[in-house]
Amino acid sequence: SQSVPEGNVAAFTVAAEGGGDLTYQWFRGATQLSDDSNFAGTTTATLEVLVSLATLGNYRVVVTGFNSQDT
Fold first, then answer.
1. Strand (E) positions, the chain?
2. Cα dihedral 15, 17, 21, 23 in deg (nearest 10)
């Protein structure tokens, strides 16, 4: 949880480990985010949000990765 004044940028970072390349997708509620004037890094480990009434909400990230095993 963060408290950041309106007009400033809040940053959220996730740390994840896994085999292969990891991919990230950030969401606000159930809405998948994409980079625009309010959001940066929507497919990276760090999401930056321009704080305003339009961006209030709960955020989550989905991390996926490919894990292979040689046989």
1. 9-13, 22-28, 31-32, 39-40, 46-50, 59-65
2. -40
pLDDT band for 69, please (50, 70, 90 cuts): very low
Query: With pLDDT > 90 as the criterion, what percentage of the chain qualifies?
Result: 75
Instruction: Kindly report the pTM of this predicted structure.
Output: 0.86
* Six token digits for residue 52: 């305003």
Distance separating alpha carbons of residues 36 and 3, to the nearest angstrom: 22
- Contacts of residue 5, defined as CB under 8 A and 6 or more positions apart, other chains included, come to 51
